Amino acid sequence: MRGHIGILESGLPYTLSVARVLVTAVLALIAAVPLSAAPPAFEARYTLSRGGFGVGEVHIAVSAPTEDSYRYESRVSTNGVASLFADRSLTQVSKGRWTDDGPEPRNYWRVDRRGSERRRSRLHFADEVELTRNGTVRVLDVPSSAHDPASLTLKLIHDARHEALAERYGLVDEKGTYRDFRVIDRGETRVEALDRTFRARHIDRTALDGRFALQLYVAPHLDGIPVRMVWEDRERTYTMVLEALQR
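The structure assignment produced for this chain is given below.
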């Protein structure tokens, strides 16, 4: 018996040494894997309501044309009775690089249609941020870390997934106005969508000037895809609830 115990005792340091090597190797592999090789690709449709009444719908499509790029497109349009009073749609497209830190926008387009009238604007992100609006081009004096409205939503989804939410983010809009937004993680809640209850994380994104706010409810079970969004300004509040999803 003592002989067997001696064999076990003498083998223990070797076993522990092998275990340490294996653990170190596994941790090294994990560290070498990018936080996110590509954005979460999906197509989603949301109901759009104001004051409890349906006024339209929102379509969002996110894709990865290549491993290190992203494309985000959203289209908001009125429908039903609301379209009789305000035939309107808003289309936004953001394209750029996808890195370990999330989206880096390169181009952003926005088309705001009201009846037969269309207003177009474009942001180009390079060494400087360039705005094209109503046929006029100008260079904007904004921080290099600024996001467009679409890429900032993707950035928040990415950072929430990787427990990397910052306290502030910068956004430049279609008019060339730059705003800082305060972001607060308000913890988990329950959200009804797709005929079921989701465990969702509530992210509060509010402009420091108090003019605009977006409440994002992202579902960890869906790789951080929003199941509910609430957009607010000083006069209006719109609620978007996930109605259909394709991944």
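Interim note for the steering committee: The CA atoms of residues 214 and 231 lie 5 Å apart. Residues 1-36 have pLDDT under 50 and may be disordered.
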